[in-house]
Amino acid sequence: MLTTMLRRALVVPLGAGMLMAASVSGFSVAQAQETNVIVVKNFMFSPMSLTIKAGSTVTWKNLDGEPHTIVDDAGLFRSGALDQNDTFKFRFDKPGVYKIFCGIHPNMKETITVQ
Ligand SMILES: [Cu+2]
Predict the structure, then answer these.
(1) Could you state, in order of their start, the residue ranges of all structural domains in the chain?
(2) Residue-by-residue pLDDT tens, the chain, 115 positions
(3) What is the dihedral of CA 31, 61, 37, 109, to 10 degrees?
(4) CA of 105 to the centre of ligand 1 (A)
(5) How many angstroms is it from 48 CA to the middle of ligand 1?
(6) Are 7 and 29 in contact (CB under 8 A)?
(7) From the CA of 110, how far away is ligand 1's center (Å)?
(8) Closest by alpha carbon to 33, among 73, 111, 87, 113?
(9) How far is CA 49 from CA 11, 66, 73, 93, 99, in A?
């Protein structure tokens, strides 16, 4: 009887703490969506074309269980293999049209226009 009461007393604050942690991380995800995020899902970049202002940072997030890389066609940058939920960021300082592809699956392509 005493042990049951003790267990309940321990479980309730732990559960509340986990709920708070979940809402805090939810908030940070919502904030990240205000920047330029490209989702990699189902072997596709989404969106496949994006127009941004010079000086903007783009974040790629891989949602697939398969690894993907983010490679600039002109050799400006190349990410390591992104596992599921990994992200890669790059800041585009120069205006231009950037062709991006996945180094593992070169048929995965997208275009980023920097104004
Ligand atoms: Cu890929």
Answers:
(1) 1-34, 36-114
(2) 555 554 555 454 444 444 444 445 444 444 433 479 999 999 999 999 999 999 999 999 999 999 999 999 999 999 999 999 999 999 999 999 999 999 999 999 999 999 9
(3) 180
(4) 4
(5) 14
(6) no
(7) 12
(8) 87
(9) 48, 22, 15, 18, 9
Q: Domain 36-114 maps to which CATH number in 2.60.40.420, 1.20.1250.20, 3.40.50.300, 1.10.10.10?
A: 2.60.40.420
Q: How far is the CA of 53 from the centre of ligand 1 (A)?
A: 26
**Amino acid (one-letter) located at 89:** K
Picking from 61, 104, 103, 101, the residue whose alpha carbon sits closest to that of residue 112 is: 101
The CA distance from 2 to 24, in Å, is 34
